[in-house]
Structure formats: C-alpha cells, structure tokens
Amino acid sequence: MKTALNHPIVEQSFAIIDREVGKHQLNQREYAISRRVIHATADFEYLNLLKFSPSAIDSGIAAIKSGVPIITDVTMVERGIKGLVAKTFNNPVIAAIDLAKTADPGKTRTETGLLKCCARYPEAIYVIGNAPTALLGLCDQISHGKAMPALVIGVPVGFVSVIESKQALLQLDIPQIVIEGRKGGSPAAASIVNALLVLASYRN
C-alpha cells in the first residue's frame, strides 16, 4: 500500500520486508501495521507477536478520524507520532508522564499521569510503549468502568510486570493491539500509531 505519507526510502524498505516475509496469514491492514513495526525494529518476529482484537483497527481508524486525543505513556512515543499526526488528522497528543511532576504514593510517575488522563479523556486512544505500570493502571480503570478507550495499544517492553500487564489487557473486552511476550517498546508503539494514521488517510 503506497501513499504520499511514506518517504521513498520507507517504500524501498517495505519492498525488502515484503520479499523476506513472503506468504503470511495476516490480512492487509494487519500486515501494514506489522510491516511498519518490522521496519522500525528490523525484527521479523513481530509478524507473529502482534495480536489484534477483531475491532481494533476499525475502532482506531474511526477514533483517529473523529479527532480523539492520543495518550502516550512517555514522551518518546509522543515524539514518534507527532510529525505524522500533524500531517494527517491533528489529534491532540498527550504524554501521560508530563501530567505528573511527582509520583503518587505507591505508583510510578507514568502511572500517576496515566490515571489523570483516564479521568480527563476516558475514551481516548491509549498507547503504552514503555511502562507496564501504566498499562496495569489503565486496565484497572477499564475493569472498573472508569475508562472506555477507543483503542489500547499495549506494547511495553522489559522484564518486570511486562507480560502480566499484557495478560491483564488481553482479558478485557476492549479494542486492543498487543505485542505478546517481553518485546515491544516506544519505537514499536509509535510505529503502530503511524501505521493507523496512514491507513486512516488511505481510507478517506
């Protein structure tokens, strides 16, 4: 899927990825997202690690087009998407950590900021690329009916509480895109959002 939003070098990279991937079981839109994550990470394992709930892509595209805020856990994800957001739908982009100068007792700064975002923007798109504590906090808010995001992108990376936070998200009946296991991170999270922005533009 070519679009003016992609630099020619990106398109060349996509062509290389297509050749190396060959046949796969993903549909066109799932593959477009997976391919962009592979492009950002040079890791072909993401082709099998990315999991999409049935309504995830449709819900994400509809929310992007309607201008809902995009809430990221950390500034690195925010910076990775702001350029393409500005070229497409101009959604507000907010890094949760920026809303918390200090952490609440027993919480990280990112989780503290994330909870503030849930109170202000319960139906936003939430993108967690770094902090499993933020994802666990978000899952708790959803399970108690205090947030109903249009889409949750749950792809924190690391070793402590990462798998547990993803499992908590997978238990919820909410549109979601998850990277299974310990892998993920800010580049992967930003790539998923950017792929959705391109898909939303393509469908206009």
From TrEMBL:
Keywords: Cobalamin biosynthesis, Isomerase. Coiled coil: none annotated. SUPFAM superfamilies: Precorrin-8X methylmutase CbiC/CobH. Gene3D superfamilies: Cobalamin biosynthesis CobH/CbiC, precorrin-8X methylmutase. Residues 9-198 form the Cobalamin biosynthesis precorrin-8X methylmutase CobH/CbiC domain. Pathway: Cofactor biosynthesis; adenosylcobalamin biosynthesis. GO terms for molecular function: precorrin-8X methylmutase activity. Belongs to the CobH/CbiC family. This is Cobalt-precorrin-8X methylmutase. It comes from Waterburya agarophytonicola KI4.
